[in-house]
Design a protein that fits this description.
Layout: H1 4-15, H2 29-47, E1 51-52, H3 56-59, E2 60-63, H4 76-81, E3 97-99, E4 104-112, E5 120-121, H5 124-127, E6 142-144, E7 151-154, E8 162-170, H6 193-201, H7 212-240
Parallel strand pairs: 5-6
Antiparallel strand pairs: 1-8, 2-8, 3-7, 4-8, 6-7
Helix pairs in contact: 1-6, 2-6, 6-7
Length: 250
């Protein structure tokens, strides 16, 4: 397991930036931290290796029926709730569209706290065969992520309060800043930081730091590192499948 300071020191040692005072270093702490955090996000985004099913702010989405009298005039919900011939006339129902946490890259599964089954992922085009799909009341059975960016849509609108529980792949929640901060990616992958950081260090536009030949070489090594992590995650996915669950070790 590596800390922010340890990753910084390792990369500086390789680049022979041995100054003890930060102001005298070719790559000061602030720059190094930025390189490390950028590498952290890149690894997480490209390999989907940060798995989360427990952080409430990320994986729990509350579903609460809205008092139909509070809809803003002119909105679709207001029109539907005041249409005497419509399916939602004077009904208090949950929304069909919900915000996803900005860190989420991929949803592996969703279930309702009140239901012993998972929701199935589909394309919203399946529902759009019914022109009134946004007004169907019932317990949701499907979800879609292709209706609107960073949002999740449900096929039915529940008329009772509930909570969606997600299992996701995501970006790091916060940047590493304190020297003792530890990356969120698995400790087995912490060795893969250095090539990504060194590539950025040697691309710094300064006569004493820029070396595009070294930067390109470290960039190639980092791309290989990312591919290795992807392969490890594929193996882990297999081991987490029902037939291989006894082999899984996070």
């Amino acid at each position: 397991m590596a800390t922010l300071e340890e990753i910084r020191d390792e990369c500086r040692a390789i680049a022979r930036d041995s100054a003890l005072i930060d102001a005298d270093r070719l790559w000061p702490n602030a720059e190094m931290n930025a390189y490390i955090n950028r590498t952290h996000r890149h690894i997480a985004r490209e390999t989907r290796c940060i798995r989360d099913a427990t952080t409430p702010a990320v994986v729990m989405i509350s579903m609460t029926p809205t008092d139909y009298t509070t809809y803003v005039a002119g909105t679709l919900d207001y029109i539907w709730a005041n249409d005497a011939g419509g399916w939602l006339y004077q009904l208090d129902v949950c929304p069909y569209l919900y915000d996803l946490h900005a860190s989420i890259l991929q949803i592996d599964e969703i279930k309702l706290m009140s239901e012993p089954r998972y929701l199935h992922k589909v394309s919203v085009t399946k529902w759009q065969l019914n022109p009134w799909w946004e007004q169907v009341v019932g317990i949701p059975t499907e979800y879609a992520t292709d209706l609107q960016v960073d949002k999740i849509a449900l096929n039915y609108r529940n008329d009772a309060a509930d909570t969606m529980q997600l299992a996701v792949r995501r970006l790091p929640l916060v940047d590493l800043s304190a020297d003792t901060d530890v990356p969120e990616i698995r400790s087995h992958y912490h060795d893969f930081f250095k090539n990504g950081v060194l590539e950025q260090m040697y691309r710094k536009q300064d006569a004493d730091t820029i070396d595009l030949e070294k930067a390109d070489a470290y960039g190639i090594r980092f791309s290989d590192d990312v591919e290795e992590i992807k392969q490890q995650e594929i193996i882990l996915d297999y081991k987490l499948s029902p037939n291989g669950s006894l082999e899984a070790f996070r």
